[in-house]
Design brief:
heterodimer, A: mainly beta, four-stranded antiparallel β-sheet, globular, B: 109 residues, mainly beta, six-stranded mixed β-sheet, 0% helix
Chain lengths: 112, 109
């Protein structure tokens, strides 16, 4: 086991709603990255958090936002959900300035 | 923006055959990582390559980074059913990590 946990496992939302996904980092890791993985695609980088601040962002609109807490856990918030937001959302924890990322099991989000 | 392309998209092999997946970047990379994702699972880090022309081995897996640091390959010798999954390369240049679409490997026993 990687030690990275995510909740919930699955989620069904309606278009226009808002969702919050949660991630607990592996012990000792201070950096969290969030990815969106559509079916049959590779993970796409959403953003990274380090020391509770955004430390890099991919090509995602502002309705995707995040938080990192003092215990290094993290949240991903998505507002005004669209059908194309349906995907597996993965968080990955690491130690800043190291390269190995440990992925969590993901949250499967379905938007109807 | 930076793009990372992988071929083939799918590969079906008989158990015991070799397998290779190729990764090409539109820009020069500072490093490349490889991940394996089992069906229904999450990506698991395999290795990172940093140096031009670098070759690393992990048991039956051989990873190469091109001289120009724009391409990479993963070769599996004598595949086993446990090798089933999707193999992703992910490159980092001046951008955050960019994943390819992956190569899905099926192994027929």
């Amino acid at each position: 086991e990687t030690g990275v946990t995510q909740s919930p496992t699955h989620l069904i939302k309606t278009r226009g709603q808002q969702v919050t996904l949660r991630c607990s980092s592996q012990s000792g890791h201070n950096t969290v990255s969030w990815y969106q993985q559509a079916l049959g695609q590779g993970p796409q980088f959403i953003f990274q958090y380090y020391r509770e601040e955004e430390n890099g962002r991919g090509n995602f609109p502002p309705r995707f936002s995040g938080l990192q807490f003092p215990n290094y856990s993290s949240e991903l918030n998505v507002n005004a959900l669209e059908l194309d937001d349906s995907a597996l959302y993965l968080c990955a924890s690491s130690v800043q300035d190291t390269y190995e990322q440990y992925f969590g099991p993901g949250t499967r989000l379905t938007v109807t | 923006g930076q793009q990372v392309m992988q071929i083939p998209q799918y590969q079906h092999v008989q158990e015991g055959e070799d397998f290779t997946t190729y990764c090409n970047s539109s820009t020069t990379l500072s490093n490349i990582q490889w991940y394996k994702q089992r069906p229904g699972g999450h990506p698991v880090f395999l290795i990172q390559l940093v140096k031009s022309g670098e070759v690393k081995k992990q048991k039956r897996l051989t990873f190469q980074f091109g001289e120009a640091k724009k391409n990479s390959s993963l070769h599996i010798t004598a595949t086993q059913t446990t090798d089933v999954g999707t193999y992703f390369c992910a490159g980092s240049g001046n951008t955050p990590l960019v994943f390819g679409k992956g190569t899905r490997l099926s192994v027929i026993a």
